[in-house]
Amino acid sequence: MPGTIAAAVLDPEDQLNRAFMALADPVRRKILARLALGDATVNEIAQPFTVTLQAISKHLQVLEGAGLITRSREAQRRPCHLNTTALGPLAEWIENYRLQAEERFARLDELLASTTDKDSPEKEKNNEHQHNNH
């Protein structure tokens, strides 16, 4: 298509941005979920939706531009395929930040545990002192 940039020539950051933008739409996520079950034509993909065939085609163009799906030609059919390879960088990006968050929580847990351990003997001494004075 004139004026479009093939997903394959985008730098990784642009590819990631396009993929996340494509996934921001619930219809496109449902289309990907359908394609995870197997290849399908535009008509097959459009079946459960209340939007027009033209709208589904536009959603497919966005998904294809993001590299999340591919299309092939089989005789008269042009089935769409989920490009599972394109999901890898998305999963890696999410996993990276998940791990960073887990590390921060683990450090916070350690800090809280060390603070609690330091406070425990002191609290016991104060409680004993108060108990002995009454």
The counted number of beta strands is: 2
User: Percent of residues in helical segments?
Assistant: 55-70%
- Helix and strand element order: HHHHEEH
Beta content: under 5%
Which segments are poorly predicted (pLDDT under 50) over 5 or more consecutive residues? Answer: 1-5
Provide mean pLDDT, rounded.
84
What is the general shape? elongated
Helix/sheet category: mainly alpha
Number of helices: 5
Please name the fourth-level CATH homologous superfamily of the domain at 10-82: Winged helix-like DNA-binding domain superfamily/Winged helix DNA-binding domain
CATH fold group of the domain at 10-82: Arc Repressor Mutant, subunit A
> What is the CATH class name of the domain at 10-82?
Mainly Alpha
Question: What's the story with the biggest beta sheet?
Answer: 2 strands, antiparallel
Keywords: DNA-binding
Region (Disordered): 113-134
Protein name: DNA-binding transcriptional ArsR family regulator
GO molecular function: DNA binding; DNA-binding transcription factor activity
What would you note in describing this structure?
The chain is 68% helix and 4% strand. It has helices at residues 12-23, 26-36, 42-46, 53-65, 84-133, and strands at 69-71, 80-82. The protein has a two-stranded antiparallel sheet with strand order 1-2. Helix 1 packs antiparallel against helix 4.
Can you describe this structure in just a few lines?
This protein is mainly alpha-helical and 134 residues long. Helix content is 68%, strand content 4%. It has helices spanning 12-23, 26-36, 42-46, 53-65, 84-133, and strands spanning 69-71, 80-82.
